[in-house]
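> forwarded from #structure-qc
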C-alpha cells in the first residue's frame, strides 16, 4: 500500500517551527522523512530504531548490508552514538557542521540494522539549517542515506525526491536546491595521525591534510575494484548514480574532443554534458551545460540534476568530460567514473 506522503515546504526553520515539530514527530514515531542537506537530500528515520532502518532500506530499494550515515545536530553529540577520539575532535573543529562524515566505533544504542551489521558507524553533522532544526527537534540522531531510489543519481532538489519517493515515505520537506550537489566526504579514522578517504566530497584531500598528518586514499575512490576484492566501504561495490543510457567519459585536448563530438552527433542521438564555453560549438546535440570549464563547484552542483535530465530525453548515449583528480575534481571524478562504469575513451590528437 502506498503511503500518503505529506509535502512540506520549509525555508525558514525558525519561523516554521510548527512544521519542523510535525516532521520531528514523524521521526520519533518511527516514520520516514526526506529532508534537505547542504550535500544532497536524505531519507531519514530514527537512527536508534532497528525497525526505522529496515523501513529506510525498503523505501530506497537498497541492499541492507550497505550501512547508513547517522546525522547529529552538534559535533559533540557523536559521543552518545560512537566512541570518539582526539582525531575526531580535530576533524569536527575544522569541518563540522559541514559535508564531512567520519567512521567511528559504534555504541550499542545504534542497532546493527543501521550499520549494515558493522561495528562502526558513520557520523555526520550537516550544516543545512533545516536539517539541523529537524535533528535537534527529533532529539535523536537521524539515519539517512541519499533519498534516491537505489541506482539513481542522488536527489539535489525536491522534485527529484518526489519522482523517486512519493508514496514510499511519510513526508518530504522541500528546502530548495542543495548547495553542493555531491554527497559528503567520508573518512575512516585509523589512528590519531591517519585517516583513510573512502569517498571524496567537498571537504577535499588537501583540506584533510591540513588537519591530519597522513591521509590515505582508498583505491576504490578512483579505480575499479577487482572481482573478489572486499571494499573498505560497502557502498563502493554497488554501481551508483547510473543513468539509463550508457555514459562515456572523454579524455583529450579540448579541440579534439569537440571535433569527435561533432562527428558522433551526426550518426546518433547524443547527449553531451558540456562546459558552458562549448555550447555554441555543438549545434544539433542535446546539450546540458555543467558550468564553466574551471568552475568545479558549479559542475558538482549540477551533475546529478543533469544526469537525470539527460536520461529523461532518452538519448542513445551520454558523453561528458573526464574531470581532473585534483581538489573538488576528485569527487566529480569518483561519481562520474562509477556512473560510466569506468568507460573512458581517449581521443587522440589529430
Ligand atoms: O552527503 C551525504 O553523505 C548524504 C546526506 C543525506 O547526508 N548521505 C549519503 O548516504 O550519501 P548514502 O547512504 O547514500 O552513502 C553512505 C555511504 C555508503 O557508501 C556506505 O557504504 C558508507 O557511506 N558507510 C556508511 N557507514 C559506513 C561504515 N560504518 N563503514 C564504511 N562505510 C560506511
Ligand atoms: Mg547514496
Amino acid at each position: 500500500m502506498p503511503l500518503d506522503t505529506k509535502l512540506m515546504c520549509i525555508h525558514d526553520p525558525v519561523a516554521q517551527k510548527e512544521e519542523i515539530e510535525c516532521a520531528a514527530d514523524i521521526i520519533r514515531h518511527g516514520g520516514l522523512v526526506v529532508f534537505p542537506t547542504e550535500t544532497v537530500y536524505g531519507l531519514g528515520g530514527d537512527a536508534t530504531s532497528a525497525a526505522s532502518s529496515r523501513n529506510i532500506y525498503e523505501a530506497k530499494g537498497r541492499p541492507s548490508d550497505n550501512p547508513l550515515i547517522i546525522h547529529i545536530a552538534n559535533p559533540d553529540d557523536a559521543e552518545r552514538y560512537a566512541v570518539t577520539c582526539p582525531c575526531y575532535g580535530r576533524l569536527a573543529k575544522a569541518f563540522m557542521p559541514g559535508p564531512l562524515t567520519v567512521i567511528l566505533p559504534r555504541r550499542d544504542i545504534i542497532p546493527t540494522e543501521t550499520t549494515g551489521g558493522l561495528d562502526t558507524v558513520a557520523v555526520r553533522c550537516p550544516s543545512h539549517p533545516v536539517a539541523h532544526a529537524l535533528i535537534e527537534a527529533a532529539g535523536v540522531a537521524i539515519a539517512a542515506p541519499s533519498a534516491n531510489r537505489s541506482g539513481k543519481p542522488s536527489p539535489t532538489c525536491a522534485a527529484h525526491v518526489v519522482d523517486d519517493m512519493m508514496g514510499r515515505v511519510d513526508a518530504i520537506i522541500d528546502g530548495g536546491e542543495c548547495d553542493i550537489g555531491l554527497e559528503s566526504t567520508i573518512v575512516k579514522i585509523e589512528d590519531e595521525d591517519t585517516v583513510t578517504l573512502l569517498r571524496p566530497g567537498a571537504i577535499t584531500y588537501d583540506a584533510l591534510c591540513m588537519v591530519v598528518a597522513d591521509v590515505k586514499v582508498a583505491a576504490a575512490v578512483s579505480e575499479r575494484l577487482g572481482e573478489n576484492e572486499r571494499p573498505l566501504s560497502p557502498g563502493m561495490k554497488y554501481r551508483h548514480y547510473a543513468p539509463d543510457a550508457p555514459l562515456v567519459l572523454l579524455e583529450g585536448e579540448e579541440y579534439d574532443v569537440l571535433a569527435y563530438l561533432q562527428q558522433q552527433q551526426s550518426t546518433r542521438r547524443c547527449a553531451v554534458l558540456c562546459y558552458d564555453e562549448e555550447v555554441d560549438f555543438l549545434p544539433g546535440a542535446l546539450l546540458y551545460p555543467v558550468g564553466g570549464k574551471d568552475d568545479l563547484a558549479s559542475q558538482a552542483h549540477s551533475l546529478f540534476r543533469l544526469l537525470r535530465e539527460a536520461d529523461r530525453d532518452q538519448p542513445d548515449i551520454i558523453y561528458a568530460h573526464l574531470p581532473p583528480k585534483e581538489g573538488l575534481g576528485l569527487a566529480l571524478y569518483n561519481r562520474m567514473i562509477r556512473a560510466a562504469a569506468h568507460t573512458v575513451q581517449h581521443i587522440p590528437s589529430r
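QC bot note: The mean pLDDT is 94. DSSP finds ten helices and 16 strands in the chain.
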